[in-house]
Amino acid sequence: xxxxxxxxxxxxxxxxxxxxxxxxxxxxxxxxxxxxxxxxxxxxxxxxxxxxxxxxxxxxxxxxxxxxxxxxxxxxxxxxxxxxxxxxxxxxxxxxxxxxxxxxxxxxxxxxxxxxxxxxxxxxxxxxxxxxxxxxxxxxxxxxxxxxxxxxxxxxxxxxxxxxxxxxxxxxxxxxxxxxxxxxxxxxxxxxxxxxxxxxxxxxxxxxxxxxxxxxxxxxxxxxxxxxxxxxxxxxxxxxxxxxxxxxxxxxxxxxxxxxxxxxxxxxxxxxxxxxxxxxxxxxxxxxxxxxxxxxxxxxxxxxxxxxxxxxxxxxxxxxxxxxxxxxxxxxxxxxxxxxxxxxxxxxxxxxxxxxxxxxxxxxxxxxxxxxxxxxxxxxxxxxxxxxxxxxxxxxxxxxxxxxxxxxxxxxxxxxxxxxxxxxxxxxxxxxxxxxxxxxxxxxxxxxxxxxxxxxxxxxxxxxxxxxxxxxxxxxxxxxxxxxxxxxxxxxxxxxxxxxxxxxxxxxxxxxxxxxxxxxxxxxxxxxxxxxxxxxxxxxxxxxxxxxxxxxxxxxxxxxxxxxxxxxxxxxxxxxxxxxxxxxxxxxxxxxxxxxxxxxxxxxxxxxxxxxxxxxxxxxxxxxxxxxxxxxxxxxxxxxxxxxxxxxxxxxxxxxxxxxxx
Length: 662
Ligand SMILES: Nc1ccn([C@@H]2O[C@H](COP(=O)(O)O)[C@@H](O)[C@H]2O)c(=O)n1
Fold this sequence. Notes:
Blueprint: E1 20-25, H1 61-64, H2 67-70, H3 75-79, H4 89-106, E2 109-114, H5 123-126, H6 135-139, E3 146-147, H7 157-171, E4 180-183, E5 190-192, E6 197-201, E7 208-215, E8 225-227, H8 230-233, H9 237-242, E9 250-256, H10 263-275, E10 281-285, E11 291-297, E12 300-305, E13 311-318, E14 322-323, E15 329-330, E16 336-343, H11 346-353, H12 363-378, E17 384-388, H13 405-413, E18 429-434, E19 445-448, H14 449-455, E20 461-469, H15 470-480, H16 488-498, H17 521-529, H18 532-539, E21 582-587, E22 597-603, H19 607-616, E23 627-634, H20 635-646
Parallel strand pairs: 1-2, 2-3, 7-9, 9-10, 10-12, 18-22
Antiparallel strand pairs: 1-13, 4-5, 4-8, 6-7, 11-12, 13-16, 14-15, 17-19, 18-21, 20-22, 20-23
The structure holds the ligand Nc1ccn([C@@H]2O[C@H](COP(=O)(O)O)[C@@H](O)[C@H]2O)c(=O)n1.
């Protein structure tokens, strides 16, 4: 079914005078195509909606939506927010093919780069047994020239082993692991997950590229992988030799690393510039979920392309030196970098590829979309547990607030989630979870199998400590939220002094809260600290008259904004709110007449933090003192069980029992 549009939006086209193009798509768990956008620039098209939703990777675009419907643009679906980023992996394959063809025709080159986080956060990956049963085969259909690992591939042994067994062989030498080793699952020996770097020459112009693939200094990986700190890696001989290669026209540093304020990429930039002052460098990053372009120096630019496959990042470089067919080298001339952030919807993809609904989808792309559709059907991802009576936001509502997913969790879900084993004997409990365990919003309407993984994909269960004095347990939440008598950095100091909290480091400071909203830190911090009135003016979705027709979405400010807009479609801005690191609920107890002791229940992912807080408060507990809680269920299970028990669907609202229509 073809998309339909009701309005014309304004687009900024990708410019083609450039001779080398990169696509970087940052999947970040959501893998398959989701959102579509409506946005404008100068001559684009888009859809109009006054809803303030946007920037969401819709809970289950690929899922709650029948796959064809997901691509249908109508005002109704846009208002409902589900079509915003709904192009899928098959569409991405068609799109890349059209741009490759164009590059071949005009003698330029196109490289497709993937900077990690291909797992967790979407039913297509999470709901299968084993996880990823369908996704590896789907991903491999895209021709990716440089591919790296994110942190999500490494939380669990099983997923990094999958990289070893599936993704690395699927992409052969294009998978690069500059600072990542794995214990070989067969012989137990430590080895690089993939080659440390790659040297190759582009097909059409003969641009000689040395490419690296880094992961930020991640510490939360399972113990079957080793992430070497970037600062140590760049001292190694292989790296020092690679950056001294004289027959290079461009260094490409790809990876799951932020491009701005990044100690890792700053160190790599310095290391390269220490030995060569002028070979251009293209950094392609990820992890912080934002659209961003950072100018490192005159000939070095970095691009980050958002989150959840909402964005296809596009970097163009022209004027590079290159080796001609006759063996002579054409010198660099007027080197220029540019970038575009492409909203991942069919309208955008048609626009940038110069195709339309009858010419866009290639056979290959269609087959991949069909494979997604069939896998979703097999997994019954549209099976509905219940229907959300309203939207619940992670960052787009203040906390606490009736529209906040965190408030919903602590006031409704936890207080009525009882262990099935002893429903009538509920002991007094304090339940704590990190807000980072929640990844996305809930939209009014069907809450499906897919929704559960979009909202909270992690397999971590809950643990509990019994008989903790209430006077102590009740202070843990405050400490974790930096509201207690000690701040988190000082808590880490305490950990360091004890020297026994294995693996704890400053990195763990960012482990509790969800990632910041997908806008640049500067804009985001401004929104937090501005006074309420200014705030409203700056970031509420109340567009000025010129913006009235804009759909809310990305409004990116980056280092090239003064020259040209980065977003390919103009949006009205969205307002985001800060949220606490952790939230908590009191169960079966009245804080005015508290019991002597309580069970302290918490998400297993934050166990080290909880034990550390207790230690600071004077109680020594170890992990061996803890027990499984919530009947061994993960937050994902708790959510789906609760929705099944509490949220009914009105007639016809549940969209069926997981049978996707065609
Ligand atoms: N078992 C887990 C694993 C991770 N988290 C949260 O996810 C954050 C990392 O996600 P990014 O997309 O930013 O890489 C991490 O800091 C935790 O907050 C979790 O809750 N449980």
